[in-house]
Design a protein that fits this description.
Layout: H1 2-9, H2 13-16, H3 24-48, H4 55-66, H5 70-98, H6 103-117, H7 124-144, H8 147-169
Length: 170
């Protein structure tokens, strides 16, 4: 649907969604920022005595592992979800909203909010974390003008979360 909407606008899909590779410097900056953000949330979780991983995620991954679907879940969480979610949130929505009266700050906040709503399986605490990560991804989308950067960062975040959940849950 995103492809169709972009084509109807008469724009190049790659240009409209900023499908250009980031530099290594941009990738490193984005990854370091993401690590610091996640570490801050993890520290706060431990301080508050909260679970570091949502219970449903542990149950889902454990069930997938027990049924021989661990590789499929890893692929879904680390490739399919980041690509589809980023194309929608920081590709299509961000691009359209940043050219509107919302400008870049409004586009970052609103696309992060939409992305957070996609994750309603989490409780409010984890939704706040998702939102702040979304703001970081939005800022990186703006700064690097690259959707591939946010896809890679999102994939790294999800891959790390899945591997750690599987490892810690075993």
């Amino acid at each position: 649907m995103v492809w169709l909407a972009v084509r109807l606008k008469g724009a190049s899909f790659a240009d409209y969604l900023a499908l250009r590779w980031p530099s290594w410097k941009q990738l490193l900056f984005g990854a370091v920022g993401l690590v610091l953000l996640v570490l801050a949330w993890e520290t706060m979780s431990r301080t508050l005595g909260r679970e570091a991983t949502p219970g449903f995620m542990t149950d889902l991954l454990k069930s997938g592992r027990d049924k021989g679907a661990a590789a499929s879940l890893l692929l879904a969480f680390s490739v399919a979800a980041p690509m589809s979610e980023e194309v929608l949130a920081r590709g299509f929505l961000y691009r359209g909203w940043s050219a509107s009266f919302l400008r870049v700050p409004g586009a970052i906040l609103l696309s992060s909010l939409v992305w957070t709503v996609v994750h309603l399986q989490y409780d409010m605490y984890f939704l706040a974390e998702v939102f702040t990560i979304g703001v970081w991804f939005g800022y990186m989308r703006y700064r690097a003008n690259s959707l591939w950067l946010t896809i890679v960062l999102h994939a790294l975040n999800n891959l790390t979360a899945v591997v750690l959940t599987m490892w810690l849950g075993s």
